[in-house]
Design brief:
The protein is an alpha/beta fold. 30% of the residues lie in helices and 19% in strands. It is globular and about 45 Å long.
Length: 230
């Protein structure tokens, strides 16, 4: 089984893994598991309309049997991240705020060694800023397993807007990454223009009927179309 998980971590250009973020309903989570979704995203940011603890307890999350449970945190205290991670049995911590290298190093020391860290880089129009962020990450790439690129917004994610994917072709990306920010059926054909392909696609607001309530038919349709195209 471990071998299977290791194999699935290998990025492949024609077989994107899928992360569905902002989950709040247990029946939908079970259905996504039966659809073989690779990563399940739970948002532990109180200001988010998809704040998971308004709907599920840490114990309920811990009992979800899945290898890709991701907890999303924004500028949270390290101790709290570690506590939530242990109580809800998370496999990945996604840092979606302004956490710097020092923060990541300290978190890495305190986290269970099997819990991986994903660092989000929010991308706007400023290429120089993006280059600087990548440089910083390159210095500590041994501490994190993946990057996640999302569209920059004052509200920390969930904009449903896409950044210009061509910026990804202008820079060497040091570790496998997730692509987020307004991915939909309308723009997935443009994925082929990215030289260094994403490990996984991260979908959220474009596949909802309301915040935290997913449109499972739309997600099913999306996964089938992605498989056909790529």
């Amino acid at each position: 089984d471990n071998f299977k998980i290791k194999m699935s971590q290998q990025p492949s250009t024609n077989n994107y893994q899928l992360k569905v973020c902002g989950l709040t309903k247990m029946d939908q989570i079970q259905e996504l598991i039966s659809m073989n979704v690779d990563f399940l995203g739970f948002i532990f940011y109180e200001k988010s309309p998809r704040f998971v603890l308004n709907h599920l307890s840490l114990e309920e999350i811990s009992e979800i049997n899945h290898q890709g449970k991701v907890g999303v945190f924004v500028n949270e205290r390290i101790e709290k991240i570690v506590e939530i991670s242990e109580k809800s049995n998370l496999n990945f911590i996604q840092l979606h705020g302004d956490e710097d290298e020092e923060f990541i190093k300290r978190l890495r020391q305190m986290l269970n060694e099997n819990t991986k860290i994903i660092k989000v880089i929010r991308i706007g129009d400023d290429k120089t800023n993006f280059e600087n962020e990548i440089k910083k990450i390159t210095n500590i790439k041994s501490q994190i397993s993946n990057l996640l690129f999302d569209t920059d917004s004052k509200a920390f994610g969930g904009t449903g807007k896409t950044f210009d994917w061509q910026i990804l072709n202008e820079i060497e990306i040091p570790i496998p990454y997730f692509l987020s920010g307004g991915i939909s059926l309308e723009n997935i054909h443009q994925l082929s223009t990215i030289n260094q392909q994403p490990l996984a696609l991260d979908i959220n607001s474009k596949f909802e009927t309301e915040p935290g309530i997913k449109n499972l038919e739309k997600i099913k349709n999306f996964t089938q179309i992605v498989k056909k195209i790529y």
